[in-house]
Each structure stands twice: as structure tokens, then as C-alpha cells.
Amino acid sequence: MGSQGSDARQIDGVGGATSTTSKVAVVSPSARMGVDVDYTFVQVAVGQETVDFSGNCGNMCAGVGPFALQEGLVRARPGEKTLDVRIFNTNTSRLIVDTVQVDEDGSFSEDGDYAISGVKGTGSEIKVAFVDPAGSMAGALFPTGRRRDTIHVKEQDGNRFSVKATLIDAANPFVLVDERTLPPYLKTASKDTAGYLRHMESIRCAGAVMMGLAPDIDAAAKVRGTPKLAIVSSPRLSVWANPIQACNSQARRA
């Protein structure tokens, strides 16, 4: 896992050369009262010989409960069909509860018919509850004290622009940008170009400073895992992968 010699292709690794598949969960029995296991999330960099311990990952959280059950770190009582696994995330000092399905022999029940839009196949349902997630890193749900902020961005080449955003810390810190306030050239730009991603990183770093997560832009750029960035837009007509969801959506609109 990782990149030797800053090789972004990860030829010698198992990360698949993407940040979403270069993640590690370190799990151990917990000595904390009312907690089953401690879990530390590690984001392994792609193309750099670095790791990031800031923040958490929801997908990895969903795997901690099944892992703990399969490895014998927790045990289900005879006859139990579901098990609550209480997890302490050391990155954010927050409690998470995974509710997992249990087989007749007490092991994790992996197969099932539960489906998530955008995810291929089905499996057993895993419920993930974040207990008191506000202020996990920045100390408050809205670190600036406002629900809507203006982020003034100044890039290294002198380019300047501003966007409207919500800076929120719930389980992880996020910079949620209102797409309508992006400069016109970013609204029409291809999302997978280096130039577009560079502008997004500039927004993210400026937001990190406003949230108190970094003292300056240079320091914010060194922590790639947090805050997360999302561009929020109005609903658009789309083709639903799940016909049931399409029917439910139409029913709600009616």
C-alpha cells in the first residue's frame, strides 16, 4: 500500500493508484468503557511517500464492524441476528456504532439483497451511526459561527475569485460550495482536468484556513485528507439506476 519513489502508478502497491482505494483501517480491542474496538483511519497518499491521519472515512467505518466480528474482537450471543459494534475513532475522538448482520454460526452475514444506488451488486445491510459528530476536528458544527460564508481565493498565479460556501464539521470537516457562485469558466470546465482540480484545491485550502484547520494556505495544502470539498448544485433530471427509487422519487414529487 502506497507509492515507492513517488510513483503515482503504484506499480509495487495494492492501492490501485487512486486515493479512494488507498485507505487503511487499524483496528484493535478497546480498553475504553462501553467501547468494543478502537479504529484509526490512515489515508495513504498516491504519488507521495506520505500518510495522513487527519479525519475519518465513512466507507472504512462500515468495514470495521464486520472485521471486528470476523476476527473475534467482538462476539454475537447465540440467536442474535444483528450486532451493534461500538467503535472509537482515534482520529476524531468520536464514537461510531456499526449494526451488522449475523449468521446462524455467529459470523458476519455478508450476503443479502440490500442495494445502494451507484454501487454494483447487493449485500447485507450495514448501518453506521455517528454519535455526536459535530466539531470532530474544528470544535464546532459551524467553525466560523456562520452557516454561509464567502471564500475569497487567491491563487499562486495571481488569479482571484470568490465563492459562497457552507463550512461545516460533522464527522469530518467539509467545504460545501454553491455551484451557482463558481466563476463561469469553472462551471463549464471539464471536471477531470488538472486546471479544474487545481482551482478546487485552492478553494479547499482557503476553506481550511477559515475553519481554523490550518494557519495558512501552505499548511493547508500539506493535509490532503481534510477538509473534504463538495460542489452542491440544484437537482437535475437523471436516469435512475434503481427503478424502485425512480418510482419513489416520482411519488414524492407528486
UniProtKB/TrEMBL annotation:
Pfam family, one: PrpF
Top-level taxon in the UniProt lineage: Eukaryota
Keyword Transcription: no
GO molecular function annotations of the record: isomerase activity
Keywords annotated in UniProt: Isomerase
InterPro entries reported in the protein's UniProt record: PrpF-like
Family statement: Belongs to the PrpF family.
Name used for this protein in its record: DUF453-domain-containing protein
Lineage: Eukaryota, Fungi, Dikarya, Ascomycota, Pezizomycotina
